[in-house]
Each structure stands twice: as structure tokens, then as C-alpha cells.
């Protein structure tokens, strides 16, 4: 296997989560294991080709696992590995930072909007931001 060189460890982290849909895929898998069709419904703008490609990259990086269940019809589920679950704090912190930064940009007259401000997939359901901040302080 070819050696990968990075300028610093942050570059490795960013290479794993970088991709138009990866953060959303990780968020949706943070809630529970999901089948391919479920992910397509939860992320309606993603194509099957791109979903498969990004899932395979996340699997190769060791943050997502694919489990094939025996029998017909074919049943495959994707879920976070322990390594993937350990990304939660990073992703939550990045989400909170993004919300705060967006508020500052809006104060300066820039228009910033989000399709969703829900990052609950990275944490247990029904925890609010205050609980999240305290949990990871």
C-alpha cells in the first residue's frame, strides 16, 4: 500500500470527512444502522453512485462498516465503527463553531442559511446543544 503523507494530523482528519455528503452520511449513521435505501431517502439530493462511492471511502477509512445479512432479498446495513463514533465530538464541535460563525457573518450583513441545523445524529437523540457542550467541555 502506498504511503500517504500529510502536512499535519488535521489534514488526515479533514481528508476523511471531506466530501459534499460525508458529514451528512455520518450524521444519519450516527442515529442508527441504515440500509442503502434509507440513506437515499434521508439524503434526497444524493445519487446512488455518489452514495456508494462516499460510503466505500468511509469504509476504507475505517469509520463506517458494511454488514451483509444472509438470505434473500439481499440485506446490507451500514453503521459507524468505534472509530467513526469517536468522530462525534469533532463533528459536533465543528457544527457548533459553524453556527456561531454564521451568526457573526449575519451580524455583518452576510446572508447565511442552512438546510438543517440538526446535528443530533452525532449524539444521542433528544440532547440539546447545552447538554452537548457540557458533555464535551
Question: How would you explain this protein's 3D organization?
Answer:
InterPro entries: HTH_HxlR (IPR002577), WH-like_DNA-bd_sf (IPR036388), WH_DNA-bd_sf (IPR036390). This protein has 137 residues and is mostly helical. Helices cover 51% and strands 10% of the residues. The protein has 7 helices and 3 strands. It has a 3-stranded antiparallel beta sheet with strand order 1-3-2. It starts with 8 loop residues before the first helix and ends with a helix. Residues 124-130 and 132-137 have low confidence and may be disordered.
User: Gyration radius, to the nearest Å?
Assistant: 17 Å
> How many helices in DSSP terms?
7
The largest sheet, given as strand count, sense and whether it forms a barrel, is:
3 strands, antiparallel
**Helical percentage:** 40-55%
Globular, elongated, flat, extended or rod-shaped: what is the shape? Answer: globular
> What is the straight-line distance between the termini?
38 Å
Strand order of the largest sheet: 1-3-2
Which structural class matches the secondary elements?
A: mainly alpha
Order of helices and strands: HHEHHEEHHH
**Low-pLDDT residue intervals, each spanning 5 or more residues:** 124-130, 132-137
Total number of strands: 3
Estimate what percentage of residues fall within beta strands.
5-15%
Mean pLDDT score: 83
Amino acid at each position: 500500500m502506498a504511503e500517504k503523507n500529510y502536512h499535519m494530523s488535521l489534514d488526515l482528519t479533514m481528508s476523511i470527512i471531506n466530501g459534499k455528503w460525508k458529514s451528512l452520511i455520518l450524521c444519519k449513521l450516527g442515529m442508527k444502522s441504515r440500509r442503502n435505501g434509507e440513506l437515499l431517502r434521508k439524503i434526497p439530493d444524493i445519487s446512488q453512485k455518489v452514495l456508494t462511492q462516499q460510503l466505500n471511502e468511509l469504509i476504507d477509512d475505517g469509520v463506517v462498516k458494511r454488514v451483509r445479512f444472509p438470505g434473500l432479498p439481499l440485506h446490507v446495513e451500514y453503521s459507524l465503527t468505534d472509530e467513526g463514533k469517536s468522530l462525534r465530538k469533532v463533528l459536533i464541535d465543528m457544527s457548533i463553531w459553524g453556527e456561531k460563525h454564521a451568526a457573526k457573518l449575519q451580524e455583518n450583513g452576510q446572508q447565511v442559511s442552512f438546510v438543517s441545523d440538526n446535528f443530533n445524529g452525532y449524539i444521542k437523540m433528544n440532547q440539546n446543544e447545552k447538554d452537548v457542550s457540557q458533555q464535551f467541555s
